[in-house]
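hey
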């Protein structure tokens, strides 16, 4: 299955990055609780990086949010938070220091299916944008959310670090 890649052209990149400017101007409240500004550390450069992501759900603790990695495990922000889970995230006017960590596969699949049930048009539009062929069934979204490599993994943003038993180990890279 072919998936779309991140925006490469100057115009499309500017459109995708426009919400970051909205947040920087202090107007993040216009997005309500639908979008989150995630500030993370580059895994190679060590420099701060920012991305705006759609909120897929709420975590079990107050002030925690769940976001999707639409480009799967190849998204730069996703790989960065695996390497450096300490993040800052902002929803509306509220900014928090916290941690980002991937949800376990089964929970990721369940949460993505719940999101698709709550917001079917948004979920379908996201899948079309990513060139994902999703029939719209709950089982299809569950499989897509549970697939770590070719799917759409979910990440929990929380003000407290995850308990050791919930952390997902980082994948080991093998040298060629």
């Amino acid at each position: 299955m072919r998936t779309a890649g991140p925006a490469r052209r100057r115009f499309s990149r500017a459109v995708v990055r426009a919400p970051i400017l909205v947040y920087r101007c202090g107007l993040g409240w216009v997005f309500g609780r639908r979008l989150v500004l995630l500030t993370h550390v580059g895994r190679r450069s060590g420099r701060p990086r920012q991305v705006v992501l759609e909120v897929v759900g709420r975590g079990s603790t107050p002030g925690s949010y769940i976001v999707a990695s639409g480009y799967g495990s190849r998204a730069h922000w996703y790989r960065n938070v695996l390497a450096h889970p300490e993040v800052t995230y902002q929803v509306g006017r509220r900014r928090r220091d916290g941690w980002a960590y991937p949800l376990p596969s089964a929970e990721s699949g369940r949460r993505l299916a719940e999101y698709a049930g709550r917001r079917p048009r948004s979920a379908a539009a996201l899948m079309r944008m990513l060139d994902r062929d999703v029939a719209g069934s709950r089982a299809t979204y569950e499989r897509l959310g549970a697939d770590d490599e070719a799917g759409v993994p979910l990440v929990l943003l929380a003000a407290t670090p995850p308990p050791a038993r919930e952390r997902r180990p980082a994948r080991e890279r093998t040298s060629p």
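The two ends are 25 Å apart (CA to CA). Confidence is low (pLDDT under 50) at residues 171-176.
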